[in-house]
Design a protein that fits this description.
Blueprint (H helix, E strand, L loop, with lengths): L1 H16 L1 H5 L2 E9 L2 E3 L2 E4 L4 E8 L5 E5 L4 E5 L4 E8 L3 E7 L7 E6 L1
Parallel strand pairs: 1-4, 3-9
Antiparallel strand pairs: 1-2, 4-7, 5-6, 5-8, 8-9
Length: 112
């Protein structure tokens, strides 16, 4: 009986810790850079959920995604795509910008 309980416990742990189960706890959000602008400029993401931004640069020049309140920055080269892990963010509004084209590359993460 004890051996069966251990097998069941091991199976439950594997199910809970599997990549599929862990992936269900995260959200993938796409952000595009085109004409030195972020699209969409206003991104709504769920609060307290691991969020991964997938940022694609469709411009011919590099751009940098920078969000000071979340302490995240990443250079995105022309034609490239990068992942920025935000982790579990508390509700609020978090502005972000492109350091190379600050006048036009602006946006806000709205966390609800």
């Amino acid at each position: 009986m004890l051996a069966l309980a251990r097998i069941v416990l091991a199976a439950l742990l594997l199910a809970v810790l599997s990549p599929a189960a862990m992936a269900a706890d995260e959200t993938l959000v796409k952000l595009t850079i085109k004409n030195h602008r972020f699209s969409p400029e206003r991104l709504e993401i769920p609060a307290r959920t691991k969020v991964i931004l997938l940022i694609k640069n469709e411009d011919a020049e590099p751009e940098e995604f920078e969000c000071l309140p979340l302490r995240r920055e990443k250079i995105v080269f022309p034609g490239a795509e990068v992942r920025v892990v935000l982790g579990k963010v508390e509700p609020g509004e978090y502005p972000f910008f492109g350091e190379y084209h600050e006048a036009t590359a602006k946006g806000v993460l709205v966390v609800r």
